[in-house]
Design goal:
By secondary structure, the chain is of the alpha+beta class. Among the domains are: 206 residues, no CATH class; 246 residues, no CATH class. Helices cover 28% and strands 25% of the residues. The strands form eight sheets. Strands 2-36-3-1-37-4-5 form a seven-stranded mixed beta sheet. The radius of gyration is 39 Å and the shape is elongated. It starts with 28 loop residues before the first helix and ends in a 9-residue tail after the last strand. Belongs to the APC4 family.
């Protein structure tokens, strides 16, 4: 039975009547009236006195303060979980201990009669806004209950009735789980599509997901809210295989298997900033940032890029021409800065089938292709000091697959890091400029390819009057003039300025290549760069030729359409304005030239797509065909052209750019791109060949056959510790010891060794914080990832536990795994040349026991995990790939911070302390008489709950 503690409520001066009557059990509802067997905290009734408590205003994420539970001298102390005691009142009236901010416990006076404790609330003010008014605006215990619920520490079970003045409200009480959770749930969601990949942003509270429908989703930590979605499309692809964040968290890269493309997407909006094709489908990727520091690098990082000073900014492409490349789209003309990011070098490493491994500087330009590795890449990791590359591959043979670990030397990248960085930035500028001019929405769509048939006859008159009409002719002329003006502006502002930028960066590359001591080992070839410069010059010549053709055609078209318009007006016997009748000799010449160019029969066109007359001259320059121009420019009478053709010395001079008068602009552009690609390909080949295989460790043989999409989450998992310069590999030897997780670690410098290179982890027991009971079972490791450099997040399955309570989320500190005191006892006694699953007995095993930093995952078949130590969160995915639960992992530290902030806030507001005193009956009556003069009494009635714990 619940105990009832109440006091008479004085009259209210405002209404002249007494307060509410003594509350009955009916007000609590049936849920609060019955005892709850699963509650880990028993409370008795506490009378509260005083006005509104002097408590801090609730914040967005208030710290946890559990419901107040005072020890009862008559009945003994209530069972309070050990993990809660630091933030509650002491376990006994005389035992001093830490108390929550603003609470002070006064012991009973000697000889005084023992009475139930009271919580006295002194004067103060509290205005907590809408969040507080939804609960109860009086009472420290109610405030603490509300804060505990807001922190997600417990579940609602039972109710607390609060009465005071003219108000009477029920506030939910909390049920605390048996194991006080070390991690707090901050989000949970059921997703419509199966998730095949997820990865946290390294710097923000964002997580990127890829599902089976081909979508790339970006969710925010708060309530797992979706920020944007990148749907599958024809240009990019529909089968996403892996994701990777740039180290600064501003770009997201994802690979598509059906189109063999890599897409770089902006984190702010779902747009492709850059994309490129690869030779094989990519199965894994890793994006790293160089952390090496030196005086040469520091001076280079601090130096300002001169191209920003010498080159004009590239203008913005109209939206119609930027469907495939968003680098210079809309209002952002500085997207290249976003793509390059910081000056510090970052490298995107791609791995695929048949030993496909490539390295891309700044995620855009290929600087190395690795050869000599067989099989499909399962994981790879390039060390931040650029000394080694770790790769895990899988080679399938006769129905089974053998998994091996490789470590490759990358000393060339490390030794020439400043040169590689400078060269990579130049290459990235060139790659971006080439794609900027490679928009597939061709400008020829803006032109109307005019084909006029026959001579001026009755048929032509019928055509002009019935089909074209005067209004249509006028509209057609305006459209052609507008289109010509648009393409003229695009050529001048984009092709010419972009070509000048290409020439600048290629010329700087040529100067770098001439410094053979620095750049020749990297494969930078001065002769190849010279060919690329020549190709860019030819492209500039062809662009200038197009401008001349546009200028000439615009004059002829204007004169022709004006003359034809007047002729059609006369056919309809309409009035012709006097100014239209005026035609100078120059206008007549323009019309004659137009008729000569476009209406002469061309027998050589009889077999070309049914076109019997010359097409409009500008459109032919924009066709992506290898055929010669139908109407090439007339070079007769050009003295400079004749002089060059007759001079054998100037004809072969490297100072003059070659000229292709009978080729289209697209042909010259495609030729230029091929030459530049060949020029930039050589360094990738040279650097790739320098990466030699130094270590090969066969791990295990896998005979399971699973869906390939689900293998994306499986072991092994690679990690690079940037502080200690170590490579870590997490894996399980599937057949022999599934209940063990193996950790292999190697130094990034292959010449150095490391102790405890291989160790197996066995998960032994887990201690409940509330009951101190020990849970022992056989646990298998489902998934594991590095949370940060010092911690591994693991999902375990209790092989004998009941369903719904058989999955655990564990934080494994590496400091306990690699204990220096007993490191000599855990040395691998086998050989790395033999497969590890054949020598399991030689692998040292350490059994781990956990008293904290673990949580039981109830009502969820957890299978996979993704952690982020920077944001202190982890995301758990169920085995059906649809159920997601997000945890905040580091709540203990935050609790201490929040408590200190509460103290500071209370000190700033200078409230009167809340005191809890154990009073005698006489003292109680005197105290009540004094208090009744200034404040109504607040009575909190709590249903007595069964303190028995559910284990």
């Amino acid at each position: 039975m619940p105990t009832h503690v109440h006091k008479r409520v004085p009259k209210s001066p405002a209404c002249g009547r007494r307060g509410p009557p003594r509350p009955s059990r009916a007000l609590l509802g049936p849920r609060a009236q019955r005892s709850h067997p699963h509650l880990g905290l028993g409370l008795r009734s506490l009378p509260l006195r005083g006005t509104r408590a002097s408590l801090p205003r609730p914040r967005a994420s208030p710290s946890l303060a559990p419901p107040l539970a005072a020890p009862c001298p008559a009945h003994g102390p209530h069972p309070i979980p050990t993990s809660l005691r630091p933030s509650l009142l002491p376990a006994s009236p005389t035992a001093p201990g830490p108390r929550p901010p603003g609470l002070a416990l006064s012991p009973a006076k000697p000889g005084a009669r023992r009475a139930p404790p009271r919580l006295l609330l002194s004067r103060g003010s509290l205005d907590a806004g809408s969040a507080w008014s939804a609960r109860q605006r009086r009472g420290g215990a109610v405030w603490r209950l509300w804060r505990a619920a807001g922190r997600g520490r417990g579940e609602v079970a039972g109710a607390v009735l609060v009465t005071g003045g003219d108000s009477c409200r029920a506030v939910p009480m909390l049920r605390f789980p048996t194991c006080f959770p070390s991690f707090r749930v901050v989000g949970e969601k059921q997703l419509p599509q199966e998730i095949i990949f997820l990865v946290w942003s390294p710097k923000r509270d964002l997580i990127a997901l890829a599902n089976t429908a081909g979508e790339v989703l970006l969710h925010r930590l708060a309530s797992f809210h979706r920020v944007w979605s990148f749907p599958p499309n024809e240009n990019t692809g529909k089968e996403v295989t892996c994701l990777a964040w740039r180290p600064d968290g501003k770009l997201l890269a994802f690979a598509l298997a059906d189109t063999k493309k890599i897409v770089l997407c902006d984190v702010e909006k779902p747009e492709s900033l850059h994309s490129f094709s690869v030779e094989a489908p990519v199965s894994c990727m890793h994006w790293m940032e160089v952390t090496v520091e030196s005086s040469v690098l520091t001076s280079f990082y601090n130096a300002e890029d001169e191209s920003n000073l010498l080159l004009p900014k590239l203008p913005t492409l109209p939206k119609n021409y930027s469907n495939t490349s968003k680098i210079f789209s809309e209002e952002n003309s500085d997207e290249i800065i976003k793509l390059l990011g910081d000056v510090r070098l970052n490298i995107l490493v791609l791995g695929g089938s048949s030993g496909f491994i490539e390295l891309y500087a700044y995620g855009m330009f290929k600087i190395a292709r690795v050869t000599g590795i067989a099989g499909t890449c399962l994981a790879l990791c390039l060390s931040s000091d650029l000394k080694s590359l770790s790769v895990v591959t899988e080679v399938s043979t006769s129905g089974a697959s053998e998994v091996s670990y490789f470590q490759l030397e990358t000393n060339l990248l490390y030794s020439f890091l400043p040169e590689v960085t400078r060269m990579a930035r130049k290459f990235t500028h060139i790659s971006a400029l080439l794609q900027e001019k490679n928009t597939t929405t061709s400008v020829q769509d803006e032109f109307m390819h005019l084909l006029l048939w026959g001579k001026a006859s009755a048929e032509l008159q019928t055509l002009l009057m019935n089909q074209l009409t005067v209004k249509g002719l006028k509209k057609l002329g305006q459209s052609i003039e507008s289109s010509y003006s648009s393409i003229q502006k695009l050529v001048i502002s984009h092709l010419q300025s972009g070509s000048e930028s290409l020439l600048y960066h290629l010329s700087e590359l040529k100067g770098m290549a001439s410094w053979k001591q620095k750049y020749e080992p990297l494969g930078l070839d001065a002769a190849g760069i010279e060919d690329a410069i020549t190709a860019v010059g030819s492209f500039i010549l062809k662009a200038n030729e197009l401008l001349q053709v546009i200028d000439s055609s615009m004059k002829n078209f204007k004169a022709f359409f004006r003359w034809l318009y007047v002729a059609m007006l006369r056919m309809t016997e309409d009035h012709v304005l006097p100014e239209l009748n005026k035609m100078t000799q120059k206008d007549i010449t323009f019309v004659a030239e137009f008729l000569t160019e476009h209406f002469n029969e061309a027998p050589d066109l009889y077999n070309r797509k049914g076109k019997y007359f010359n097409v409009e001259r500008v459109g032919q320059y924009l066709k992506d065909e290898d055929d010669d121009l139908v109407s090439p420019p007339n070079t007769e009478g050009n003295q400079w052209y004749d002089f060059l053709q007759n001079s054998s010395y100037l004809k072969e001079s490297p100072l003059l750019f070659p000229y292709y008068p009978r080729k289209s602009l697209h042909f010259v552009k495609r030729r230029m791109e091929n030459i530049i690609d060949q020029c930039l390909q050589k360094p990738a080949d040279v650097i790739g060949k320098s990466m030699n295989q130094a270590i090969c460790i066969p791990l295990y043989r896998d005979t399971r056959s699973e869906d390939s999409t689900r293998r994306l989450f499986k072991f092994p998992f690679l990690w690079n510790n940037k502080t200690s310069n170590l490579h870590y590999l997490l894996f399980t030897i599937l057949e022999d010891s599934l209940y063990k997780m193996c950790i292999l670690r190697r130094h990034t410098d292959i010449s150095q060794s490391v102790s405890n290179g291989l160790i197996a982890i066995k998960f032994g027991s887990f201690t409940y914080a509330t009951t101190e009971k020990v849970r022992r079972s056989i646990y298998s490791c489902l998934d594991a990832q590095f949370y940060d450099d010092e911690t591994v997040t693991v999902v375990l399955k209790d092989t004998v536990g009941r369903e719904g309570r058989d999955r655990l989320l564990v934080q494994l500190p590496l400091s306990l795994v690699y204990n220096s005191e007993d490191s000599a006892e855990y040395q691998f006694t086998g050989t790395y040349s033999t497969r590890l699953d054949e020598q399991c007995s030689a692998i040292p095993t350490r059994t781990m026991h956990f008293e904290k930093h673990w949580r039981l995952l109830e009502s969820m078949k957890a299978q996979y995990v993704a952690g982020n130590g920077f944001r202190k969160v982890s995301c758990v995915l169920s085995s059906n790939l649809r159920h997601v639960r997000v945890f905040e992992m580091d709540i203990d530290d935050e609790w201490e911070l929040d408590e200190s902030s509460d103290e500071e806030e209370e000190a700033g507001n200078k409230p009167v302390k809340i005191k809890e005193e154990v009073l005698s009956e006489s003292e109680t009556e005197n105290q009540q008489a004094g208090a009744a003069a200034f404040a109504p009494e607040i009575v909190i009635k709590v249903e007595k709950l069964d303190p028995e714990l559910d284990s």
